[in-house]
Amino acid sequence: MIYQSDALTVTRLEGDIAELNFDLKGESVNKLDRATVNALTAALDALEAEPGLKGLLLTSAKPVFIVGADITEFTAMFGAGAEQISGFTGVNNDNLNRLQNLPYPSCVAINGFALGGGFEVCLACDFRVMSSAAKVGLPETKLGILPGWGGTVRLPRIIGVDEAVTWIATAKDQRADNALKVGAVDAVAEPEQLRELALATLANAVAGKLDYSERRRAKSSPLPMNDTEATMAFFTMKAMVQQQAGRNYPAPLKAVDVIEQARGMGLEDALKVEAAAFAELASTDVAAALVGVFLSDQLLSKKARGWEKKADRKVARAAVLGAGIMGGGIAYQSAYKGVPIRMKDINQEGLDLGLKEANKLLTKRVDRGQMSASQMGEVLTSIDPTLSYAGFEDIDIVVEAVVENRKVKLAVLAETEQQVSEDTILASNTSTISITRLAEALQRPQNFCGMHFFNPVHAMPLVEVIRGEKTSDTAIARTVAYATKMGKKAVVVKDCPGFLVNRVLFPYFDGFSKLLRDGADFQVVDRVMERWGWPMGPAYLLDVVGIDTGVHAGEVMAEGFPDRMKLDFKTATEVMFEHKRYGQKNGKGFYDYVPDKRGKARKTTTEESYELIAPVVGERTEFADEDIVARMMLPMATEMARCLEEGIVGTPAEADLALLYGLGFPPFRGGIFRWLDTVGMDYIAEASQKFADLGKSYELTEGMQAKRADAATYY
């Protein structure tokens, strides 16, 4: 044994080869936390002192190689200032430089994920052999930062600038075949042959059959581009990256800037440019928000795993009641993820529509090369359309997805309960109707909960799992397990009108209605909120949701929370509804929708909307962008604060992710609570006071007032 620690070991093999094996004790994966970085420093000391070595093999004892740096350490570091951040990156940059410059060749066997800092370790090695089951990549720009341990320097010098920019800017994991194609790795092996091939590659390098010195020279030298080539290439790349990333995500473009600035430099100077840019980005609100989203997602996954452990059994057979678009979407998602499902409707037309929806979604996957025709056939055969309850006695969970009408749902649920076993879980895909009230029709309310999917089911990650007054932990656990199996992010919430997402969405829509009442142009409001980061403004969103659906849900919310959600004026949205302008579903709402060449509805402006709403809106008034944002966002923020204080949602992290995954809340802002922490409660209090005359939904909650008094934050 040359060196041993709780993070890695170095042993001597036959043929004077050393093996550096990453195996972080107490963790399921390897990561480059401070302990591992310090251990790597000590291991390199030992390697440099060990006589007679001819080569180094890097391996992992885990199913992955190294998943990257320890993100939890980032959050504390980001607020510490540029000097401390540079110190953090500097230690491991020294390590990787020493690894690259060992007096003998090195080869890494990439057995699983090698991401971020883990892949940067690989790039410092002379040769890279990759398992066909592994993936590599530099995902840092998704976190609002850039590679900080030489990724922006070594990768362009290994695979070329164009490919390196694509890898870094898109932050996508790369499969072995593509990594081999572009030259990021030297060979690909089946998992059981990986070690043998890596050792053979290293042996050839030791024997002089493979030149590693030239590889090192290329990684340490300026990029082979003249000024004319560089000017043209970087101009094109910047335009492409800027268009794809948008103005709210600075990291991808910054990474391109760093590669350009360092193109004429050697390794040491180029690393200094990278370190300075890393420190700059790490100090931004965007990085704090995106890293926060990543950590919150880990928390949500941990909670889901906790519920799965409590589940009495796995969901092997499911059913959905009500076909159509929603039922077909649920059936598709379940079958695609490996859970066979019965799709029941009361008429054949409904079943045909549900199967058509599933077939359409599967055909798209085949057309994109994401699955074969035979795989599509297997998925379709696992969807069993039926007009009867035959076989329902063997179903583990039934999702009711019939029309959003309380009486209809009560009847369907009561009927279904008589057809299933005593321990079958019933779940309602309702968006507004109380789970506790729906449970009144059931003999076993403990086996009933809400399972609210968002439309379109295949595209929206969120599922709200709603606990009624009598819902058991068993029902919640099995439903969360099913949602996870379907590839969804489950957030468990308590029952209340609108549950969580719709409860906070409709105050946002109310803010929109009040702006129009006071003379704002709905197109201007849309543009302002889209610039703020929303994927679509409120008028456009209402059209997509369906104005009829919005009006109905708004009535439910007004009944549930009359003190702040019952409006005392007729809204422009209600006028749209009265004139049967329901949005995209019938081609006309606030906007008109005309199919383009691909058949996709294209939004167009129409004067008819303005003419119809003229009697209920004020004289056209110009509002400052900041005031539009405050009037739209304050009602959503105060309502979400109430939900947290009432225990409707468990944590700020779950609340924030519910809006990200359910509504498309701007990720670079991190969620509603992360946004409140960023702007500060003093700012929110000033805005609240400024718009106090707009009603109770603009008042700070007791919890918000306490946060302000204590100078406390949600995170």
TrEMBL record:
EC nos: 4.2.1.17
Alphabetic keyword roster: Fatty acid metabolism, Isomerase, Lipid degradation, Lipid metabolism, Lyase, Multifunctional enzyme, NAD, Oxidoreductase
Signal peptide limits: none
PROSITE patterns per the UniProt record, alphabetical: 3HCDH
The keyword Methyltransferase appears for this protein: no
Entry similarity comment: In the central section; belongs to the 3-hydroxyacyl-CoA dehydrogenase family. In the N-terminal section; belongs to the enoyl-CoA hydratase/isomerase family.
NCBIfam families from the UniProt entry: FadB, PRK11730.1
Protein name: enoyl-CoA hydratase
Provenance organism: Kineobactrum salinum
Gene field: fadB
